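Long-time lurker, finally posting.

We've been working with Carboxymuconolactone decarboxylase family protein ([Mycobacterium] wendilense) and I want a structural starting point before designing mutants. I don't trust myself to interpret raw outputs, so I'm hoping someone here can both generate the structure tokens and explain anything notable. Sequence follows.
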Amino acid sequence: MTNLRDDGLNVFREMLPGLLPDNLPNKDVSFGTGFASELMEIGIEGIFGRLWSREGLSRRDRSLVTLGILIALGAEMEMESHFRIARQNGLTEDELAEVIYHASGYAGFPAANTAKDAALKALGKNIQA
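Top reply, 14 upvotes:
Generated this for you. Predicted structure of Carboxymuconolactone decarboxylase family protein:
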């Protein structure tokens, strides 16, 4: 039987290498305490464990879908993480730029411009670029 938390942590580690210590066993990973402290656990199990672990779409394709949704939502903080994930999942900078261009026609210029800023941050580039 699969453990969604372990699956999610494994996917999270693969897509965002170095964010969690590699030598820390999954059972010892904690995302803190306090207000809404379970939110990240919900994301690890439900999003990374259940959705990103599914067959049917490649991780590269899931990155494209996810970026499109996040751009349309204007979810800048999540976009920044997912632009890094998309690079890890094989998308090139030119392809990421095309995602932003394409989104401008469907989500609007402000959403695409916000996505450009998030991508620049994620890729470690100057915001004025």
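Before you design anything, note these points.
The chain has a mean pLDDT of 93.
Residues 10 and 26 are 8 Å apart (CA to CA).
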